[in-house]
Amino acid sequence: MLGHAPSTTSEKFLSLHEAVDLGYAGYSTLRKYIAEGRLPAHRLGTRIRLRQSDLDALLTKAGVDPVDAAIERLVTTAPPLTPEQTRRLRDLLGEPS
Q1: Beta bridge partners of 51
Q2: pLDDT reading at 15 higher than 90
Q3: How do strand 41-44 and strand 47-51 relate by DSSP bridges?
C-alpha cells in the first residue's frame, strides 16, 4: 500500500535499499510486506520510502526482541571475519577450533 508522505515531518524515512542495509529484511521481503499491506510505504516523487518507525514496529509485531534485532542488524552489516579473526575469537570465547 503506497501513500504520499507528508511534506512536513521530522520522522526518518529510508529507501528500500537503506532498510535492507540496516538489516530489517531482504529487498524482496520488504516489497512483499508492502504489497500485502503489512508495511506502509510512501512515495516521494518516483521513490518509495519507508518510515523507520514502521520498520521497527514490524519487527516488534513479528515477536522479535529489539535487542536481538539490533544485534542481527550489526551482524548483518559487519564485514565478514577472516579465518585468523575467527580463530582468535574462538580462542577468546574458549570454544574448540
Answers
A1: 13
A2: yes
A3: antiparallel
CB 2 within 8 A of CB 41: yes
Side by side, the strands of the sheet bearing 41-44 are 2-4, 41-44, 47-51, 13-15
Q: Which of 44, 65, 40, 74 is nearest to 55 (CA)?
A: 40
Domain that holds residue 15: 2-93
Number of domains in the chain: 1
- The 10s digit of each residue's pLDDT in 58-79 is 876 656 677 777 787 788 788 8
Would you say residue 1 has pLDDT above 80?
no
The CATH number of the domain holding residue 74 is: 1.10.1660
